[in-house]
């Protein structure tokens, strides 16, 4: 079969199921492509030996079909534990660390038949939307290898764009599924909080800012992987109940659905003019589909949203990383941004956290009112196009100085603060030939409705079909 690596994950799965192609042939095709392209992209890390992977593929060819991922190569983001495979989390503290057990995400992926070939690169502890770390180095953008692939799921995004993987997982606290989707011309879905349970370790009640989710070159692939990852864990209190297949509900008539465009929120977000224009242009596809699109400015102070986010993120990261910080040797290995987050959290009082949560609650009340008028809202997925991969983070955007290492990604915070379902989607290419994207989001629990809109958009645009140069 011609160009196996160019097939969608769903089509590749069907070809294996029909016997048109073997798991061994699929594995060989992807490993050959990884050998050819990964050295210059650095998207996949901790790659297992070819002989081991081909042996697993042969075993899959001779075994009953486990699920839709049966025999497909899969690399898991290097924040999730993988039994027998190095999980460094981008940190020199964990370089060479090999977990004894799988994370829940890895368990579910393997149970669906995937062959885990290695990991996808991420910044240290997933902090920042630019994928670089002292363990594996920097992941580069397939559309321009001098530029950032975004993050923190940058390895996954670059691997999908370069056809090194058929489908991938990611995680998202502050745009880490949406930003790399935009920078690599693919899709990344942040599900409603509780849709995909986290690992049952540590606190399971207080910290609700981050979630795992799927990435792919089509919304159908994304929805199929969401079906694999989603579903409650009885050990966790905030899980959403199991729903009918998301992939099975994609085909829907979206005519008449109402979409609100927030733009730069009346100038609050510093967004490059070309990026804003590209995202506005992408909305034409929804209008052509029969949706009603109109600008809207929420009646809420966006600075309050940002300030609440800074507090709650400090609190969450300091709670998670205080063990490393307390050890002087390990603290010396933490990057400055991690230390800044942890120390910010250590200075907080309980009332500081409460006040931030009140703002979050008020913002939810405001957004709930907006969703009485709109079926979905849209913001850009990033505030500038992919930037020089040699820098740590953009210091200025649209002639405004950035005061933190992540302010250039503030546009994702209105979604993250509330745990809303959001689909990061390609919006096309800017004047410099680099990709950009939009995030389409809905009320809590509206994952299926957002994926339906995204699927209709994908069928109308097919942006991921535009491959990187020389590929």
Please provide a written account of the structure.
The chain has helices at residues 9-18, 23-41, 50-61, 104-111, 154-161, 178-184, 219-229, 273-288, 302-326, 328-331, 336-346, 350-370, 413-416, 447-461; strands at 44-45, 73-77, 115-120, 132-133, 137-138, 140-141, 144-148, 168-172, 187-190, 211-216, 258-261, 292-295, 376-380, 396-397, 400-401, 422-429, 435-441. The protein is globular. It has a single domain (4-465), classed as Amidase signature (AS) enzymes (Alpha-Beta Complex). The protein has 471 residues and is an alpha+beta fold. It has an 8-stranded mixed sheet, with helices on both faces. A 3-stranded mixed sheet has the order 1-3-2. The protein contains 14 helices and 17 strands. The mean pLDDT is 97.
Shape: globular
Mean pLDDT comes to 97
Intertermini distance: 18 Å
What is the count of β-strands?
Answer: 17
Q: How is the CATH topology named?
A: Amidase signature (AS) enzymes
How are strands sequenced across the largest beta sheet? Answer: 8-10-9-16-17-13-11-12
Q: Which architecture per CATH? A: Alpha-Beta Complex
Tell me about the largest β-sheet.
8 strands, mixed
* Continuous helix count: 14
- State the helicity in percent bands: 25-40%
The CATH superfamily name is: Amidase signature (AS) domain
Number of domains: 1
Secondary-structure class:
alpha+beta
The percentage of residues in β strands lies in 15-25%
Q: List unreliable stretches of 5+ residues.
A: none
**Nearest-angstrom radius of gyration?**
21 Å
What's the CATH first level? Alpha Beta
């Amino acid at each position: 079969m011609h160009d196996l690596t160019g097939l969608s994950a769903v089509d590749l799965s069907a070809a294996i199921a029909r016997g048109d192609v073997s798991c061994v042939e699929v594995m060989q095709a992807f490993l050959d492509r990884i050998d050819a392209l990964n050295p210059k992209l650095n998207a996949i890390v901790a790659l297992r030996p070819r002989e081991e992977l081909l042996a697993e593929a042969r075993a899959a060819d001779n075994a009953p079909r486990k699920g839709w991922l049966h025999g497909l190569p899969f690399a898991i983001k290097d924040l999730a534990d993988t039994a027998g495979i190095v999980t460094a989390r981008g940190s020199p503290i964990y370089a060479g660390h090999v977990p004894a057990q799988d994370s829940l995400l890895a368990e579910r992926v393997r149970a669906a038949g995937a062959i885990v070939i290695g990991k996808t690169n991420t910044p240290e502890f997933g902090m920042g939307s630019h994928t670089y770390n002292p363990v594996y180095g920097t992941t580069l953008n397939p559309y321009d290898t001098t530029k950032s692939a975004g993050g923190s799921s940058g390895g996954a995004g670059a691997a999908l764009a370069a056809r090194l993987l058929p489908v991938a997982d990611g995680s998202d606290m502050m745009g880490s599924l949406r930003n790399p989707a935009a920078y690599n011309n693919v899709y990344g879905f942040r599900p409603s909080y509780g849709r995909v349970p986290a690992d049952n370790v540590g606190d399971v009640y207080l910290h609700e800012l981050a979630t795992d989710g799927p990435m792919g070159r089509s919304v159908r692939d994304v929805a199929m992987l969401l079906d694999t990852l989603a579903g409650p864990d009885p050990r966790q209190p905030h899980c959403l109940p199991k729903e009918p297949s998301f992939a099975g509900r994609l085909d829907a008539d979206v005519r008449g659905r109402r979409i609100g465009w927030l733009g730069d929120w009346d100038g609050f977000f510093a967004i490059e003019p070309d990026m804003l224009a590209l995202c506005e242009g992408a909305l034409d596809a929804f209008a052509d589909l029969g949706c009603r699109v109109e600008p809207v400015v929420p009646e809420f102070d966006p600075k309050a949203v940002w300030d609440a986010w800074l507090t709650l993120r400090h609190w969450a990261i300091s709670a998670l990383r205080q063990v490393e910080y307390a050890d002087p040797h390990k603290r010396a290995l933490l990057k400055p941004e991690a230390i800044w987050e942890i120390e910010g959290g250590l200075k907080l009082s309980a009332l500081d956290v409460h006040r931030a949560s009140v703002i979050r609650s008020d913002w939810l009340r405001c957004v709930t009112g907006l969703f009485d008028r709109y079926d979905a809202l849209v913001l850009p997925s990033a505030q500038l196009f992919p930037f020089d991969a040699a820098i740590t983070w953009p210091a200025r955007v649209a002639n405004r100085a950035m005061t933190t290492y992540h302010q250039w990604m503030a546009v994702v915070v209105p979604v993250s603060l509330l745990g809303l379902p959001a689909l990061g989607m390609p919006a096309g290419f800017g004047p410099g030939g680099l990709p950009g994207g939009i995030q389409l989001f809905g009320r809590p629990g509206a994952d299926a409705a957002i994926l339906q809109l995204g699927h209709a958009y994908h069928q109308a645009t097919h942006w991921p079909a535009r491959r990187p140069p020389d590929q």
